Amino acid sequence: MVNSFIEEGILCADIGGSHITAAVVNGTSQTVISDTIVRQKIDAHATAEVILATWTATLVAAQEIWGNKCDCLAVSMPGPFDYERGISLIKDMDKYDALFGMDIKREFADRMALPMDRIWFMNDAEAFLRGEMCQDSNKYFKRVLGLTLGTGLGSAFFQQDEVRDLNLGSSPYLSGMAEDYISSRGILAYYRALGGKDTTDVKTLVKGAGEDGRAAEAMQQLAIWLADFLLEHIPELNPDIIIVGGNISKAQALFLPQVSHILEDYGIRIPAKVAAMGEQAAMLGAASFIKFKKMNS
C-alpha cells in the first residue's frame, strides 16, 4: 500500500541557475496544486547562506499556502550533483560555486524540519522528461530525447518506460563543452562579441531581437550550435521526437525552426517540439520518482 504521506502532498522544487519554483504536488493524482506555486529569482553568485535562505523561504511559502506540513521533499536539481547523498558538486559553471561540497540534503532537513530519508534529489533534465512523459500526447513515443536550455544544457533520454540523464551538456564541443555555447552564457557571450548592448539575461535580448540585428543573429547562432550538437548525438540515440524545455525554449520561434531546417538538410526528419508543461514538468517528475522509490522499497 502506498504510504499516506505520498497520497497527501509532496513538497517539490524545480531549481535552476536563476530561479526556484516550489509547489505542492498531489501524490495520488500526480498533479501540481496550482494555488501553491511560488517562484523566486535567485542570484546564483550569492553566498551560500543567501542562496539557501531564498530556497527555504520559497519552499516554506508554498507549504504555507497549502496549509499543511508536507512530510517529504522532492527537488529537481541541476548537476553536477551527488543526487543520492544530496551534495553539490557544481563548480566553475557560472552558478552556485558557494555551495560546492555542501550537504544540501542536511541543510534542507534542518531548515525544513524533515528527516533526511524524506528528502530526494533528481537531475533536473531527467525530472523534466519524466514529467513530460506523463502527458497523454507523449505516451505513443518509444524513444524521446529531452533537452533543457537555460543557464546550462540539460539532456535526458526516455526508452522502455525508463528515463536516464545523459549529461551531454558536459560533452566536448568546439573549444570547451556543449553548455559553454548552448546556454544563456553562450548566447550572451556571442551577442557581446558582435558588439551587442550590455545585457545580463537572454529574456531581455530576446525582447529586442525584432529591432536589434545582433540579438537576432545571436539566436540564429544558437540554432546552428544546437543543430550541430544534435547531428553528433542523434545517430546513436535515434529518437522519435525531441522535446525542448527550459527558459530559452520560450523563444523557440527564433531558433527551433532553423534547427529543423538544418537537420533536414542532412536527411534527418525528427520532429522537435517545445515542452507542454514548463517548470511543472520537473516538479511532477521529481514527485513521481518519490512514489516509485517508496512503492518499491
Automatic annotation (TrEMBL):
Pfam families: ROK (PF00480). CDD domains: ASKHA_ATPase_ROK (cd23763). It comes from the Bacteria. Signal peptide: none annotated. InterPro entries: ATPase_NBD, ROK. Transmembrane segments: none annotated. Belongs to the ROK (NagC/XylR) family. PANTHER family: BIFUNCTIONAL UDP-N-ACETYLGLUCOSAMINE 2-EPIMERASE_N-ACETYLMANNOSAMINE KINASE, ROK (REPRESSOR, ORF, KINASE) FAMILY. This is ROK family protein.
